[in-house]
Amino acid sequence: MPTYLQRNQPPGVPPLELTGERTLPDVPEENYWYRRHLVVYRWIAARCAGLRVVDMACGEGYGSAVLAERAAEVVGVDANPEAHEHARLRYGSPRLRFERALVQDFEAGAPWDAIVFLQTVEHVEEPLPLLERFASLLAPGGVAYVSTPNRLTLAPPGARKSENPWHVREYTAAEYRELLEPHFSRVEILGLFHARVMRAHELAVRAGWDRVHSALRITKPFYDRFVPAIAASDFELRNDRDLDSSLDLLAVCHR
Questions:
Q1: pLDDT tens, N- to C-terminus, the chain (255 residues)
Q2: Which residues face 63 on adjacent strands?
Q3: Shortest CA distance to 193 belongs to which of 236, 254, 132, 144?
Q4: How many domains are there within the chain?
Q5: The domain spanning residue 96 has which CATH number?
Q6: Which structural domain range is residue 154 located in?
Q7: Beta strand 112-118 with 248-254: parallel, antiparallel or unpaired?
Q8: CB of 34 within 8 A of CB of 42?
Q9: Residue 213: inside a domain, yes or no?
Q10: Sign of CA pseudo-dihedral 160, 163, 169, 172
Q11: 158-188 b/e with 16+ CB inside 10 Å = b?
Q12: Could you count the other beta carbons within 10 Å of the beta carbon of residue 191?
């Protein structure tokens, strides 16, 4: 397997290796997944202006930095020592700090206006106590933003989960709602879908594009250019009835 490291990091900031456990910016081969996650962080950030926010399992830290552009205070929490050190060194802001801790143990500064927990609940063996804890850390009127991939579009048809070795369990929209609703007063679930260039590519694949680029032997040169050019605007969040066809599920959970 090839090794992918982040490119062009600031002086003194050690690059992280892409392992599949977390999404990284500055890795061209990972750009699709990075942009797919970034659009959700930006959507949440627009709703956190002036608020106190915790970004649980923040990983490399890029999402915490996006939240800190609008929030009054952001704490990025992650237990991984390499990710924590990288985030601490790379993302500096008077409104942002990083804490190395297990998400189930972090409670400093509670209550919080918002808790962000993106693309991680599928990694958790026992999510129920963790979700209950998140609810307890929220101030009255607070919101937890919790996202996960949609099993129906990530895993092979009929499979219980995808081949991602870091995932313990993946959810359909109905299963996700059943998981979350007991812990919050109200849960709204939005779907993330392809838009613009990615929607056109999706339609091209359905029309047989995979056979064409393979027959022309242009697969690698095409995708070596296509993937790094994907933008966050090539995805969109929608309050859509057809959540079963979404890429990811974002739950907006009100205390």
A1: 579 999 999 999 999 999 999 999 999 999 999 999 999 999 999 999 999 999 999 999 999 999 999 999 999 999 999 999 999 999 989 999 999 999 999 988 989 999 999 999 999 999 999 999 999 999 999 999 999 999 999 999 999 999 999 999 999 999 999 999 999 999 999 999 999 999 999 999 999 999 999 999 999 999 999 999 999 999 999 998 899 999 999 999 999
A2: none
A3: 236
A4: 1
A5: 3.40.50.150
A6: 28-193+239-254
A7: unpaired
A8: no
A9: no
A10: negative
A11: eeebeeeeebebbbebeebbebbeebbeebe
A12: 22
Query: Side chain identity at 118, as an amino acid letter?
Result: L
Structural domain contains residue 207? no
Separation between Cα atoms, residue 102 and residue 80, nearest integer Å: 9
* Within a domain: 129: yes
Q: List the structure tokens of 75.
A: 């704490």
Residue 214 lies in a domain: no
Tell me if 233 sits within 8 A of 195, measured CB to CB: yes
Q: Which amino acid is at 12?
A: G
Name the token pair of 247.
């890429």
Q: Transcribe the chain into DSSP letters.
A: ----B--SPPTT-PPPB--SSS--SS-GGGHHHHHHHHHHHHHHHTT-TT-EEEEET-TTSHHHHHHHTTSSEEEEEE--HHHHHHHHHH--BTTEEEEES-TTT--TT-SEEEEEEES-GGG-S-HHHHHHHHHHHEEEEEEEEEEEEBHHHHSPTT-SS-S-TT-S--B-HHHHHHHHGGGSSEEEEEEEEE-HHHHHHHHHHHTTHHHHHHHHT-HHHHHHHHGGG--GGGEEEE--S-GGG-SEEEEEEE-
Q: Quick one: tokens of 242?
A: 């057809």
